[in-house]
Every structure is written in structure tokens, then in C-alpha cells.
Design goal:
Blueprint (H helix, E strand, L loop, with lengths): L3 E2 L10 H13 L9 H20 L7 E4 L2 H14 L5 E4 L5 H14 L2 E4 L10 H9 L5 E4 L13 H10 L3 E4 L19 E5 L10 E5 L25 H16 L1 H22 L4 E2 L13 E5 L7 H7 L2 E2 L15 H6 L2 H4 L3 E5 L6 H14 L1
Parallel strand pairs: 1-11, 3-4, 3-5, 5-6, 6-7
Antiparallel strand pairs: 2-8, 7-8, 9-10, 10-12
Helix pairs in contact: 1-7, 2-7, 3-4, 5-6, 8-12
Length: about 375
């Protein structure tokens, strides 16, 4: 049976060059980076070289990169650190953030008396920056703003320049979940005044279970995990050497071919939108996902003019892998918290599907999906 993978916002196919790097490391670089003998020193050197190379892609220093098990741990580390180490008393976010941020905010609010305020959104999920400024100016409490750069379900791109300007003006710290952006967009942290950001390697054709947190120089870090002095004392646990080297290679590949991949994938997305509109004028797109300029070129969230709880299952049976929302909430019957927040009740009850693309997606695969959807509709 022909299979088509269009769930790249959940995870991506690992690049063959990344597999080769990791395979080589597993065979020859098995020392513990904390060991003082030559095997340990070799592993430590590889990790620190990877850290320096990753830092260069964002125009920061190696000491500002902390390796983690992925984006969720990185978000948790940053938010907890802001509260327990930097004296943050209030967090401003939105109700359509990734659950790695939302659930952490719920925890901090419930258990540590942190005030959590939510910025207004319009019907497309765009952040109301006027309201953001009003929230910031309404209190003198030390505040952290946490807004994701690219929404993982509807693909909206945050106006990060405007948000950073507002945060600086109001002396607020700024954290962004950048998981869907890294490897797909250039991020120069000397030009963007982000204080904290996160990455997860498997979103850009690297291995699962590894990522990093960026802490702007000058912010101390209190660890959440205790037991060792790894990661400059910020994150105990023996470093996942092979995965870190895989992430380094995946990022190198992504950055070197970024414009080429972007143009290729963006054209596929435009073609898919055109073909879907040809099937039915009643097909709609959630958020700004059909706005090429203001949404990620890798994500398209489609709302069909009917309610069919079996559509995702039938697509899967046809060999087509897609998602109804974030993979992190699979098994939940609550549906997408993002769509429930921005859509009216009628539209929220219609069937919505997230299609997400990568450099491995082909036009032939898009045609296959369009033909199936045409028959299904």
C-alpha cells in the first residue's frame, strides 16, 4: 500500500547523514563525558564542539546553550527558572500555546501563586499586541512573556520584533517556544532580543529525545534535575552524546539548505491549497495557515465543511498520515485546544486536519492525498 507522511509538525524523518553521524559516534565515541580518561575526554570534546557549532547558528556563545531531552524539558526549565531563580511573579501567555508551556503555567499558578494572564487573540489566533502592552503596563510585578514563535497547529508566525520591543519597553523577560521555527527560519539572537528559546531536534530531521534551551548570558540557572554537575551545573544527567551530535548535524544540514527547502516546501503548500479549493469552495483554513506570508510554510490546517469523526481514521487506512492537532495530546478526546479557543462553536465542531510538510514531501504525494479527499468529500 502506498503511504504518505504529512505529519511533520509532530516529528520528521531522520536524515540519512544524521543517522551516519550517530552510528559512527555509537561505535567509536562511547566514553562518559564526565570521565577524566581519554575516552571521556573525547566524548566531552565532541559535545562541546557541537555546542559551539549550534551556538554559531544563532549568533550566541556556547555557554548560553543547555542541552535537554527536548522542547518540553527546555520550556519547563526556563519557566521554572524564571520563577524560582529570577523572581518572576507573573507570566503572560496565550491559551493556544503548546501544552509544555500551558501546563507548566497551570502548575506554577496552582502550586506557587504565580499570576498567569492571557493575551487576547483575534479569530485567526493573532496576538493582540495592544492588549499585551496593556497587561504589561498594568502591574509592576516582575513579568515573563511566553509566546510561541510559530504555532504548532495553525502555523501562525508571531510578530517577534514588535513583541520584543514591547517587552523591552516594559522591562519584561521574553521566552518563546521556537520548536517549530528552528531549522526552518534563520534566527539571529543578536538582532532579536529573546531572553529564552527552545529547540527539539526531531522537528528538523534530527533524533528524538534531544534539544536545547537558550538562556541569554547573565541569567543564572537553577537545575530542575539534581544528581550531577553536567551542563555547567544546569542540568544533571549524562549527556546523550550520540543524539547531541545528531542534532548538530541535522541543524547544519537544515541551515545550509534552508532557502532551497523553504522555496520547495512553500510551493508544495501553495499547490495543495489551490487543489483543495478546487475540490470545494466550502473548504476553509484555520488560523493564518493559508496566508503564505504570515504562517509557517510547513503547516496547513484545513477545516472541512462537515463533521466526520472517522476522517482521520480513514486517511490512516488509506496510508495517509496526518493529525487533528498536536501529537502531544493524542489519546485525548477533548480535541484541539487551539481550535476551540479561536473558532466559534459551529466551526469548532467541524472536522479539521493539520497537514504538515517537509523536504521529503513530493508533488505526487500531494496529488494522491487530493484525489483521496476528493473521493471522500
Amino acid at each position: 500500500m502506498k503511504t504518505v507522511y504529512l505529519d511533520n509538525a509532530a516529528t520528521t524523518q531522520i536524515d540519512d547523514q544524521v543517522i551516519e553521524v550517530m552510528h559512527t559516534s555509537m561505535k567509536s565515541n562511547y566514553g562518559n563525558p564526565s570521565s577524566i580518561h581519554q575516552f571521556g575526554r573525547k566524548a566531552k570534546s565532541a559535545v562541546e564542539t557541537a555546542r559551539k557549532n549550534i551556538a554559531k547558528h544563532f549568533n550566541v556563545t556556547a555557554s548560553e546553550i543547555i542541552f535537554t531531552a527536548g522542547g518540553t524539558e527546555a520550556d519547563n526549565l526556563i519557566l521554572h527558572n524564571a520563577v524560582f531563580n529570577l523572581g518572576v511573579k507573573r507570566i503572560i501567555t496565550t491559551k493556544i500555546e503548546h501544552h509544555a508551556v500551558l501546563h507548566t503555567c497551570f502548575h506554577l499558578e496552582k502550586n506557587h501563586n504565580i499570576l498567569v494572564d492571557y493575551v487576547n487573540l483575534d479569530e485567526f489566533g493573532t496576538v493582540d499586541t495592544v492588549h499585551l502592552e496593556q497587561l504589561l503596563s498594568a502591574s509592576e510585578d516582575k513579568t515573563l512573556v511566553s509566546l510561541m514563535l510559530i504555532n504548532n497547529e495553525i502555523g501562525n508566525i508571531l510578530d517577534i520584533d514588535e513583541v520584543t520591543e514591547i517587552c523591552i519597553k516594559n522591562n519584561a523577560l521574553f521566552h518563546s517556544d521556537t520548536v517549530q521555527a528552528i531549522g526552518h527560519y534563520n534566527i539571529d539572537l543578536q538582532k532579536i532580543s529573546l531572553d529564552f528559546m527552545v529547540s527539539s531536534a526531531h522537528k528538523f530531521h534530527g533524533p528524538k529525545g534531544v534539544g536545547f534551551a537558550f538562556f541569554r548570558k547573565g541569567f543564572g540557572i537553577l537545575p530542575m534535575l539534581h544528581g550531577g554537575e553536567q551542563e555547567m551545573g544546569a542540568r544533571s544527567s549524562t549527556e546523550n552524546v550520540h543524539a547531541i551530535l545528531g542534532m548538530e548535524k541535522a541543524l547544519e544540514i537544515a541551515v545550509s539548505s534552508l532557502e532551497e527547502d523553504k522555496n520547495y516546501i512553500e510551493n508544495l503548500k501553495k499547490y495543495f491549497i489551490f487543489e483543495l479549493k478546487s475540490i470545494s469552495k466550502d473548504i476553509q483554513f484555520n488560523g493564518l495557515s493559508s496566508d503564505i506570508e504570515n504562517s509557517s510554510y510547513t503547516i496547513l490546517n484545513v477545516r472541512f465543511p462537515f463533521t466526520n469523526d472517522m476522517l482521520l481514521f480513514s486517511l490512516d487506512m488509506a496510508g495517509i498520515a496526518i493529525s487533528g492537532g498536536s501529537a502531544c495530546q493524542s489519546g485525548s478526546n477533548k480535541g484541539s485546544h487551539v481550535l476551540q479557543e479561536i473558532l466559534n462553536d459551529t466551526d469548532a465542531n467541524k472536522t479539521s486536519v493539520r497537514f504538515s510538510f517537509s523536504k521529503y514531501t513530493t508533488k505526487e504525494e500531494i496529488d494522491f492525498v487530493v484525489k483521496y479527499l476528493e473521493t471522500a468529500i
